[in-house]
């Protein structure tokens, strides 16, 4: 196994250990969320190129309207002004819409209801005036719900796929992952692993065995796939960076944020 694969396998263990330690430390589910979100942010700060800023907070449009709070905002750190930066306590920033490349929702357990929340939060971000068309949403979950049989795994996979299609969230979300929970039994004899999933919005081509209408649907709405745990983190990061690289910087007027919003007005 190449060294890069070993690195991501070690990071997967770190994520699982963090998930378990916060579960045993904090009784309140809300209290567990903050360190789990922070752990993902630190991971992205280490791995992503430094031109990408990583923070948590809200996105603001030139009209002053704010998005919902995003767990992770990835933005153009080389060119973007920061409208607000929390100097005391926990990390929190307000980032101009034109400079935001992606938002990432971080969740503990990816249930159907949680997925609906992810969709709503990312749609809130995409609806902000000034957000560029090539900006996108992503999600990162530490675990699926407990799935006891392969039939339950298949049903879960299909239901998430159906929600994606029905909500048209594929228009806003390009990449997502659901890590394996070590409390799961090993369910899949092919991968010899616990269930974990990737959502990929990449095009596939037919080989003659798959109907054209099926390929068209997959290319439009993406795939929520059951994957091998050994590949989940490095494929997620590969796809994340690939999508970040598609974002193109455009100039905008800082006056829209620092004058029109009254930040410098007395």
What's a concise summary of this model?
This protein is an alpha/beta fold and 266 residues long.
Poorly predicted runs of 5 or more residues: 262-266
Q: How does the major sheet shape up?
A: 9 strands, mixed
Distance between the termini: 62 Å
Number of domains: 1
Strand content: 15-25%
Strand order of the biggest β-sheet: 3-4-1-2-5-6-7-8-9
> Please, what is the average pLDDT?
84
- Supply the number of helical segments: 7
The total strand number stands at 9
Structural topology:
Blueprint: H1 3-25, H2 29-47, E1 52-60, E2 70-76, E3 84-85, E4 93-96, E5 100-109, H3 112-126, E6 136-143, H4 150-167, E7 173-178, E8 197-200, H5 212-221, E9 223-226, H6 232-244, H7 255-258
Parallel strand pairs: 1-4, 5-6, 6-7
Antiparallel strand pairs: 1-2, 2-5, 3-4, 7-8, 8-9
Helix pairs in contact: 1-2, 3-4
Features:
266 residues, alpha/beta, 7 helices, 9 strands, 20% strand, globular, disordered C terminus
Describe the structure.
32% of the residues are buried. The chain has one domain. Helix content is 38%, strand content 20%. It has 7 helices and 9 strands, in the order ααβββββαβαββαβαα. It has 266 residues and is an alpha/beta fold. The protein has a 9-stranded mixed β-sheet, with helices on both faces. β3 and β4 form a beta hairpin.
